[in-house]
Amino acid sequence: MAMSCKFRTVDMHTCGEPLRIVVEGMPPIEGRTILEKRDFAKANLDHIRRFLMFEPRGHTDMYGCYLVEPSPPVPCVTEGDEVVSDDVKAEEKAHLAVLFLHNEGYSTMCGHAVLALARFAVDHKYVDPATAVTRCRHDDARPTAQPSATQPAGDTAMVTASAESAAVECGVDAGGVREVPVNIECPCGLVRAHVEYDMARRRTGRARFRSVPAFVLHTDVYVNVPGYGSGRDASSHAAANSPGRVLLDVSYGGAFYALVDAAQVELDIRTASLELLKKAAAAIKAAVQASLPITHPYSPELSFLYGVIFTDGKDKWQQENDSGAPEPTANVTIFAEGEVDRSPTGSGVTARLAAQYHKGQIALQQQREFIQPQVKGSSFTGTVVAETLYGKKQQAAVIVEVCGKASYTGECVFHLEEDDNIGEGFLIS
């Protein structure tokens, strides 16, 4: 692999999950839309992904992104009531666009990366901090009309929200802090983020983002999974291959996830080894892919199962004590090729909240804390802030807000010597 150029990166983490942002060295990534750019990178530049994500510069759980030119800001295009293009509107132009990278390829949405990129965009002058406004509340979730069946589906502006939406806070001082709005174009669509900005110290802080429409695809379905679940013959010498049934949901939060209470596979996500979690996730993912259709309302390129989220089963919002604080819930996400998220997973939190709201387990504006139990202090908050309709069939969907904190870990310059074949990138399974 000939690679004479050097790559400069800014490295960050969000609640422990890494993000390597490539800021210099990338060749042009062709394509008019973000999905065309993603296809081009997959077909022509995959050696760079392996070079930056794999060992010896990365590892099997490394995560990163390329910065690309945003798609042309044209109106949403529809055919009848079906959205066929989700390009951003002129008044909502993206400040930057990104392609996400991991050990298997290129994901469609990444919440932890969006939270980090919101800081990065302000700190690296993609967005002027002078645009900061004094608001830490959901004042852009004011009630609007519910879309009719003839209006364009998938438009996140066409939502309904409760009157209390302007009074729900994002885990920050009730007196209000300045926030800078940052629009980030992801393969799943435009994601609107806000990042705290201390005007006196000129320092960014916590961030929050509004999801693309999130919805449940399959609810309370049983999937036959060899070696796991109820109904299998655990006493058999062939128990590992004995068929069992696992109850799960499949939900979309910018990517599709299978949501599974870990107790069904006899694992405790707080103490189970990553090897056991990854093994169970691989079996469940294969079973879901073989038995359930995974179909996005209008984009075939988004129609795939990205990962499995093991939860503690505490899906219902309820007060933990007399103070009114809601009880946290824990989850561990295994995505791509057995990659384990160190954060609670932003798109996963979105998918979980969509499922919880669909089942009546949480209401609009009820904020919930989500933790990754194997990383101390790894915590996001999530809130269903509005309802919407999405896709050709106008299916029920929600808009979710996720909040968290990203930190910088360093800056790197990577290069490859001519005779270093190992340095092109490798993984040990």
Structure, explained:
The chain folds into 3 domains: 7-119 and 409-422, Diaminopimelate Epimerase, Chain A, domain 1, CATH 3.10.310; 129-210, no CATH class; 215-405, Roll (Diaminopimelate Epimerase, Chain A, domain 1), CATH 3.10.310.10. The chain is 15% helix and 33% strand. It is built from 5 helices and 20 strands. It has an 18-stranded mixed beta sheet that branches. A hairpin with a 2-residue loop joins strand 4 and strand 5. The longest helix has 18 residues, at 274-291. The radius of gyration is 21 Å and the shape is globular. It starts with 6 loop residues before the first strand and ends in a 15-residue tail after the last strand. The relative contact order is 0.18.
| Main pleated-sheet profile | 18 strands, mixed
Estimated structural class: alpha+beta
Q: What is the count of β-strands?
A: 20
Unreliable segments of 5+ consecutive residues = 75-88, 136-176
Strand content bin? 25-35%
Number of domains: 3
Q: What is the CATH topology classification name of the largest domain?
A: Diaminopimelate Epimerase, Chain A, domain 1
Mean pLDDT across every amino acid position: 86
- State the order of secondary-structure elements, H for helix, E for strand: EEHHEEEEHEEEEEEEHEEEHEEEE
* Helical content class: 10-25%
Shape: globular
Number of helices: 5
Cα(first) to Cα(last) distance is: 23 Å
- The CATH architecture of the largest domain comes to Roll
Q: What CATH first level of the largest domain would be assigned?
A: Alpha Beta
What's the Cα radius of gyration?
21 Å
- The CATH superfamily label of the largest domain reads Diaminopimelate Epimerase, Chain A, domain 1
